[in-house]
Each structure stands twice: as C-alpha cells, then as structure tokens.
Automatic annotation (TrEMBL):
Residue stretches making up the L1 transposable element dsRBD-like domain: 174-236
Family assignment from sequence similarity: Belongs to the transposase 22 family.
Protein name: L1 transposable element RRM domain-containing protein
Boundaries of every L1 transposable element RRM domain copy: 76-170
Protein's organism: Canis lupus familiaris (Dog)
Coiled-coil region: 9-50
UniProt KW Electron transport keyword: no
Assigned keywords, A-Z: Coiled coil
Length: 243
C-alpha cells in the first residue's frame, strides 16, 4: 500500500467524519426546531381552547342577561301606535283604560286589573327620522297580561283616537328576533293543524303523534326531524333538509 493511497484514505475518512459531525449538528437543530414547532402548536391549541371557553362563557352570560331582561318584562304589555302626547292631559293610565274600554269592553268592566307602572319606551336616536315611542304597561299580575293579550288577538283590530294600534307582550330585542325566527315553521305547522305555539320566551311547541313537543332552536328541531320522516317531509323546505 503506497503512501499516497494511505494519504487519500485518511483524507476520505476525515471528510466522512466531518460530514458525520455536520449531520449530527443538523439533526440536533432539526430536533430543536421540531420541539419549538410542537411547543408553538401546543400553545396555539391551548389558546384556541381558552378563546373557545371565553366565547362559550360570553354566550352564556348573554343568554343569562337576556333571560333576566325578559323575566323583568313578564308582566309587561307593549302598546304600539298610541299617538304621542295622548297621555298629556289625563295621564297614561287613563289612556290605557280607555283603550281597553273602547276595544275590549267586557274586560274593561273588570275591576281586578292592577296597573303598577306605565311609561313611554326610551327614545331611540336616529339621525334620519324620528322613532315612535311606544307605551309600556307593567301590570301587577301576569294572568291579567295574558287575558288582555288573548282578548286583543280575538279582535279584528284595535284603535285609539282614530289610529290603528297593536298590543303585544314586551320582550327584549334578541327574544323578538328569536320568536320571529320561528314564523315560517309556525305557518307550515299551523296549515297542518299541528297546534303550534310560541312558548315563553321563544320556544316552539306543537302536537306530534298525540304529544306536545317543544324546541329551543331550529337546530334542536332539525335533529328531532331526522327521526320523523313525515315531519321531515312537511318541514323540508323551511328547514332546508336535503333530499
């Protein structure tokens, strides 16, 4: 074996050792980067979970606030369309009693209806046009409210001072929107004589197979419908159930 061959062999060995060392350094750095990426992914996942919990807590707080808001209004009536200033001369209580006496005389003769408070709804700022302020009536008894609402529904129309007015339950804006969200389904169920109702504050109920079913939202109803082919067919268009 010549000296030149041994020299070349030694040089190749040194190069291999150097490459091995560089490879080990590279692998070490790759492992460090992978650990850093894994750590970042863990932190991102933890952050998403925290944000998800915060979103759930916020929704729970909003739902609870709406429930409290609505519970404070359980005895309230909302009189829409009462002319502004109608109560100026003799007060809002007189206006309310006149509306009942003129439109629902049988109920107006009852003396047990207790009025706790009457006021105009707070003004809403709108730079484009003035917003009418409705009359809010707080009754002493929830049953009185239901009697008035039922009597108002039985009338073809209500009027006061020559103007058409409406009497409704008083709910928060969010609850009104939730109740309106049932309208299309309510209409279809009513056409099928399934006795739909909107329960307080915004649950849908109807009669199905001899039982009363109630639902918190459309998703809950949609899940129930999947097990009821006949109901599925009835609500296919309104719930957008695929064929």
């Amino acid at each position: 074996m010549t000296a030149e061959f041994r020299s070349n062999q030694a040089e190749i060995k040194n190069q291999l050792n150097e490459m091995q060392s560089k490879l080990e350094v590279l692998m070490t750095r790759i492992n460090e980067v992978e650990e850093q990426v894994s750590d970042i992914e863990d932190k991102l996942m933890a952050k998403r979970e925290t944000e998800g919990k915060k979103d759930e807590q916020l929704k729970d707080h909003e739902d609870r606030l709406r429930e409290i808001n609505d519970s404070l209004r359980t005895k309230n009536l909302h009189l829409i369309g009462v002319p502004a200033g109608a109560e100026r001369d003799r007060g809002p209580e007189y206006v309310f009693k006149q509306i009942i006496a003129e439109n629902i005389p049988n109920l107006g003769r009852e003396t047990g209806i207790q009025i706790q408070e009457i006021e105009r709804s707070p003004p809403k700022i709108n730079k484009y046009h003035s917003t009418p302020r409705h009359l809010i009536v707080k009754l002493g008894n929830y049953k009185d409210k239901e009697k008035i609402l039922k009597a108002a529904r039985d009338q073809t129309s209500l009027t006061f001072m020559g103007r058409s007015i409406r009497v409704t339950a008083d709910f928060s804006t969010e609850t009104w929107q939730a109740r309106k969200g049932w309208q299309d389904i309510f209409r279809v169920l009513n056409e099928k004589n399934m006795q739909p109702r909107i329960l307080y504050p915004a649950r849908l109920s109807f009669r199905m197979e001899g039982e009363i079913k109630s639902f918190q939202d459309r998703q809950e109803l949609k899940e129930y419908v999947t097990s009821k082919p006949a109901l599925q067919e009835i609500l296919r268009g309104t719930l957008k159930i695929p064929l």
